[in-house]
Amino acid sequence: MAGRRAGGLTGEAAQRRRDRDVLLTEMNRQQVQRHGLLAADVDGNRSLADTIDMVAERLESLPCGLVRAADVSQRRQIRQAENAVVVRQLLGWRADLSPELMRDAPPFPFSCECGGAGCEQTVTMPVSEYQRRAANGPVT
Fold first, then answer.
1. Would you say the pTM of this structure is higher than 0.85?
2. Cα distances (Å, whole numbers) of residue 59 to 43, 68, 86, 117
3. Which of 45, 53, 83, 132 falls 20 to 30 Å from 114 in CA-CA distance?
4. Number of domains observed in the structure of the chain
5. Which of 48, 67, 86 is the last residue in one of the domains?
6. Are 31 and 79 in a shared domain?
7. Same structural domain, 29 and 40
């Protein structure tokens, strides 16, 4: 396993992935600037708590501040949207590594979609199981 880097890639393939990541980061920066959006560099130099505080402060500085979901339906929609982003990211990661190296995206603690105020429960399962269950309604 000596010399393996960047998600199991070595040499030229690992360098291509790093180059791609640098390009994507720069494209994102340009889009954020062009549209006047708030951005935050998350580079691992802050603790998780400090990163959360920084992001919350930036969100609170928006004209409408942080807006809470008005009801169960809105909370459920927010959780479903969050889980959908996770699915896309995990499937993209799997595709990038190649299905031969990763037969299925790894299990992930998906947010409970019950819509209950203050619910912080998660349901850990593979992406394929989440997709199957989500097709039949909220995953709780």
1. no
2. 19, 12, 21, 20
3. 53
4. 2
5. 67
6. no
7. yes
